[in-house]
Amino acid sequence: MKAIRIYEQGEPEVMKYEDTKDLTPGAGQVLIRVKAAGVNPVETYIRSGSYAVKPALPFTAGTDAGGVVEETGEGVSSFKPGDRIYTSGSISGTYAEYVLCRETDVHQLPPNVSFEQGAALGIPYATAYNALFRKAQARTGEIVFIHGGTGGVGIAGIQLARNAGLTIIATGGTEKGQALLSKQGVKHVLNHNSPNYIEKIKDITGNHGADIIIEMLANANLASDLTVLARFGRIVIIGSRGNVQINPRLIMMNEAVITGMVIFNLSEAELKIIYTALIDGLSKETLKPVIGKQFSLKEAPLAHKTIMEPGAYGKIVLIP
Fold it and tell me: Does residue 165 register a pLDDT over 90?
């Protein structure tokens, strides 16, 4: 089978498209034919060596995929060959034609959801759900500011917040991205490349501020986030690429909470709750991943370069 293999950490070019040995599922494992693999920013950090956890070399990246069950190992009872599924974790890496997964990391894909959309579910939707409802404890009627709303996690957060009855403010850096936000039902769309855009939040909210801020790039935005946070507000940091200097008095005055999250810290029980909740939204089409760009599997280096560029728009997927 074909797969992307990484023998050393570094720039995107370290990813090699090559033949690898076929996979066989062991006890409790499922072998999946990958129809689409999701590309997430965290995978670029792992590839480059900047992530805290460094996998043993060589390895194949990727946790998210949409595909079809090819074969099941001993003891697997939830799936059979031919089932349409999506994954939320992998043993062998999803940047490949086939992937091995634990049974607990495989989920039924509703018939109305494409394989490409299935590849967009695992990390993005679980991250957004965890940030909004487990970390921020979002409540109906609250105001959420999604700071960077046009990528995979941002779109997931918007759809989940909309379904929960939150008032949404979100940013996009391009006209195309802002149009996408409006199409997703965001009434208050801001351009984070415009001067003083952050100050408009106080006007939008009648000087109340945002009860919740979902932050995708804390090193650039956390200091300004604190200036528009409501009293008793909560900031959940999903992404950061460096250090930041903040004014702690703004946290003290509002009795604010700043928390970070990494989806890989969640237990199986916590993830099961999240994915059970997502299935209902997918079946009812209140959750609908947006696919931005598709690349062939051999174009994985280009996909890694693209996902780190400004102007995110939907989910990037690889097609084997």
Answer: yes
Domains defined along the chain, listed by start: 2-121+289-319 (3.90.180.10), 125-263 (3.40.50.720)
Per the structure block, which two tokens stand in for 49?
Answer: 């060596």
Best CA proximity match to 184, nearest among 40, 287, 315: 287
Per-residue pLDDT at 52: 87
The phi-psi region of residue 141 (left if phi > 0; otherwise alpha if psi is between -120 and 50; otherwise beta) is left
Average pLDDT estimate for 201-215: 98
Report, as an integer, the average pLDDT of 77-101. 97
Q: What percent of the chain has pLDDT over 70?
A: 100
Beta carbons within 8 Å of 247's beta carbon, 6+ residues apart: 223, 226
Structure tokens at 72: 């099941």
- Determine how many CB atoms are found less than 10 A away from the CB of residue 204: 18
pLDDT of residue 110: 94
Handedness of CA 185, 319, 266, 219 (dihedral sign): negative
312 Cβ contact list (under 8 Å, min separation 6): 148, 150, 151, 152, 154, 173, 177, 292
Reported pTM: 0.94
The model's pLDDT over 59-76, given as tens digits with 9 standing for 90+, comes to 999 999 999 999 999 999
- Among 48-52, 92-96, 127-131, which stretch is predicted with the lowest mean pLDDT? 48-52
Angle, CA of 24, 319 and 300, to the nearest 5°: 95
Would the pLDDT of 280 be above 90?
no
